[in-house]
Amino acid sequence: MKSISRVAFAAALMAGAAGIAVSPPALAQKKAEQGAPKLKLSKEVQNAAAAAQKAIAAKDYATAGTQLTAAQAAAKTEDDRYIVAALQLQAEASKMQDARAANQQVSDQGLKAPLEALIANPKTPAVDVAKYNYQLGVMAANAKDNAGAATYFQRAQQLGYNDPNLPLQLVKLKMDAGDVAGGTAELEKALDAQVAAGQKPSEELYKYAIAQTNKKRMGPQTANWIKKWLVAYPTRQNWRDGIVTYGLTQQSAVTLDKGQKVDLYRLMRASKSLADQYDYEIYAQWAYDLGLPYEAKAVIDEGKAAGKLPAGAAADLLRVTNQAIASEGSLAPVEAKAKAGANGRIALNTGDAYLGMGNYAKAVELYKVALQKGGVDADTVNTHLGIALAQSGDKAAAKAAFGEVKTAPRSDIASFWTLYLDNPPSA
Fold first, then answer.
1. 77 and 125 share a domain?
2. Taking the chain, what is the end-to-end CA distance rounded to the nearest angstrom?
3. pLDDT per residue as tens digits for the range 172-211
4. In whole angstroms, what is the distance from residue 43 CA to residue 21 CA?
5. What's the pTM value of the predicted model, to 2 decimals?
6. Rg (CA), the chain
7. Is 325 within the bounds of a domain?
8. What is the pLDDT of residues 130-142, one digit of tens each?
9. Cross-strand bridge partners of residue 23
10. What b/e sequence results for 288-323 when a residue is b if at least 16 CB atoms lie within 10 Å of its CB, and e otherwise?
11. What 3-state class would DSSP assign to 27?
């Protein structure tokens, strides 16, 4: 999240200050629609201010400075002090723009005094007071004065300043100060406001929140931001990156066991977001390790068909999976034993075997037996039941099963599957 550039900052100031015009013997006010204050200047200030404005227009900043110093010394009223500060602001902003155009180093420190003077002046319109507080906040933020920046930004917000950069600046300040929870809360409000206004927040804002929360090892918050990102931008690449960030790398948001990771790989397979040789090989290896040779072989075959596994890749793994399939035989006797068992452990394992074979109807049947008999982890069974139902096309029943998963991290895995059912990858 970048700070606001000084050249853009100067342009914003010029937009307000350049509308003021003075010329003897009277003051030419801003256009009525710009809401300028009605001013009555003393003669000495009026003459010096007019000369200063003429010098600013000619980019003769030395003369402008001399005239403004004289005007400041002669100022007797708030009207006088207002026009002096406004022209000082115009001169400093104009110098910043000229320096930038000449590729010279730009400093914004000359803006601080006139901005503070205008904020304190009762003649300054309320809308400008809010804007000037925001601009002082930008200056403080760029100078790494986080406390000062927060004070100015909060004042601007309280005064009704309406700019999409304001809430994002508050987010950045909190993040930079180490308050990631507070920063992401501010960001969530900012994004909700954009959505409510019919706007689509930038994808980079979601990625920023994911990176910041994950850096602080805030697993649940990272998971929630990944889900928000996938709802807003449900591409296959994002689905893969989101799933990997959640639970498939050393820097993942959560630590998962092999079975839980396989359930995430199943989601990547369902969402067609398996991306490369590593994805297919590690998924197949872990499925084999869990005693699911049919699933391992299916993944290898799909990887080869998709051109992700080159000739000869995973050859040893394919050989042992084929051996395991040959020796496994029919599941019918095991199924009968599962249904007659004292608990649901055999039914769960048999359901997993059917799931790996792609026999989703049988998998659903055995998972329901496992839940009925008990003695198993209900969250695991309901996760796998939801996967089997989702793969069979029964979306409503799958979501109901996923909704029965109560404990993290399986509850998050189930919610990712539910999210996929409602937000399948767009491309």
1. yes
2. 27
3. 888 888 889 989 998 998 899 889 989 999 999 999 999 9
4. 15
5. 0.75
6. 33
7. no
8. 999 999 998 888 8
9. 26
10. bebebbbbbbbbbebbbeeebbeeeebeebbeebee
11. strand
